[in-house]
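In this supplementary section we document a worked example of the pipeline. Step one takes a protein sequence of length 516 as its only input; no multiple sequence alignment statistics are reported here. Step two produces a three-dimensional model, which step three serialises into C-alpha cells for compact storage. The input and output of this example are shown verbatim.
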Amino acid sequence: MTGSEPLPALRCYVAGVQHECSSFSPIPTALRDFESVRWGVDPEPATLGFGYGESCRAALDLGFELISGPFSSCQPSLPPPHRVWEQVREGILEPLRAAGPVDLVWLCLHGAQMSDQEDDCEGDLLERVRALVGDDVAIGCLLDLHANLSSRMLDAADLVVSCREYPHIDYGERAAELLPVLARVRQGEVRPTTAAVRFNAPGAYPTPDEPMRSFVARFTAAQVEPGVLQVSVNHGFEGSDQPDLSASVVVTTDGDTAGAEQLARRVGADFLDTVRSQSWRGPGVAESVELALAATGHPVVLADRSDNAGGGAAGDSTFVLTELLRRRVSDVAVALIWDPIAVDFCHAAGVGARLPLRIGGKCGPMSGDPIDLDVEVRYVRTDATQALFGKGEPLFHLGRTAAVHVDGIDIVLASVRTQVFSHHVFSQHGIDHLARRILVVKSTQHFMNDFGTFAAEVVRCDGPGTLTADLASLPYHRIRRPMIGLDPVDRIEVAPMPAVAARTRSAPTNGDQVRQ
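The serialised model returned by step three reads:
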C-alpha cells in the first residue's frame, strides 16, 4: 500500500447491555426478562436501546465498518442469578470472537449492573473484552450517568464516557462526540490517560434544574480545555448495596496524568459542593397532595418517584392513590400502575363495564395495601405506546393496558412494568392530559423532558418505596461509609480512585498498521 491510497475503514464492534440492578427491588430477574435487539436485524433502528442505535448510526456516519453485536436490556430489578449474567455476557462476547480482528469496540452499558455473585458486571465484561482483543484495540464504553464507577471499568477501557443529562436525552450526542476520539486512540494520535475521583453521595440529581444545570455547564466547558479528551460525571445508583456505590468524576487527557488528576479533583469538589448546597428530599405523600391542590394553574404533575419501575420499584404502590381517594380529590389521572391481573379483568369485562376491581399493592410492603374499588372500564388497548425519555415518536410498547374511572379519578393500568416517559400514557387512553387538574406519574425524572413542557407545577413526592430518597429507610449492609443521607454531610470527602495506568500501544503510520 502506498501513502496515496485511502486508509481502510476502521472495523468497529458495537454491542451492549443495560440492567440497573436494585438490591432492594421486590422483582426477581430471569433470562427471559432480557430483551435483545440487533442493528440491521430488528426494525426501528433509532430506538434500539439506550445509546445503542445512536452509536451504530454514528459509527456508520464516521465511515467505520460496523460489526453490530446484540443489545440486551431489562427493566430494573433484583440482580439475577450469576448463570443468567454469564449467558448475557456470552451473547456479547461470541459475536466479537466471530468477527475476527477489529480496531474499535464500543459498548453501551449501564454501570450499575450486578448478579448475585458479581458486584461489577460491566467491569467483568470489559476485562473479558480486553483479554479477547488485546491491548492495541481501542475500547470505549458509554454509561448511564447513574453508574457506580469501578476501577475495573477504567483499567479495561480506553474511554469511559457517561451521558450528561437526566433525563438521559444525550446518548447520541456522547456517541457522536467520543467515537472519533476512540478512533484517534486506535490510530495512535492520542494517548488516553485517565484519572477519577469519587465520593459517597449517590442520588437523583435532575440536570435541567438548578443547581445541577449550572454545574453541567461548568464541567462541559472544562472538556474543551487544552489536552482534555473527555469529562464525565456519574450520579451513582443508590439502589446498589455494594462497595462501589458512589458519585464519581472521570477525566481523560492526552497523556497528561497530572492534568487529568487535577481536573478530576476540581470537578469532583464542585460536584460535591453542588450536592451539599440543598436537600434533595421531597415532601411525603400527604404533603405532596396538599401542595398539588394548593398550586395555581393546571395540570400539576405529582411525581410518585419512590415507586419508579425505572429504578427497580414494582410500580404498583397505592400510597398516593389512597390519599387522593381519602381526600375525595377529583379531576385527576394516575399512570402507570403495574397490575397485569387487573388489566386482564378489564379486558375480559370490556369497555363500559362496571366491576369490582382490586388494584395494586401486590408485590410487598413497599407497594402498600391493595385498593378495592367499583370502577367503570373506560379504555382497553393492546397497542399503547409512549416516547422513550419523552423524546421523539411514541414507539415504546406498554403491552396490554386499561383505563378505569372511579370518583373523578382515571387510573391507567399496564401489563408491562415501566415508568412514565411521555403524555401518551394518558392521551392514548382517552384522557386529556392538558385539561386535568393533577396528573400523577410513577417516575423520578425521565417524565420531565415531555411533561416539563406543559406542567403548571411539578411536585416530587418522596413516599414509601424502593426508590425512596430517604436512604436511612433502606437496609444497606455492604456500602462504604460515611454516605450522604446516612451520615453528616461534612464527613463526605472526595477521594481519588486507584490510578489507571496508560496502556502502551504502538503508533501506526498507515492503514496496514491500523488493522492487520
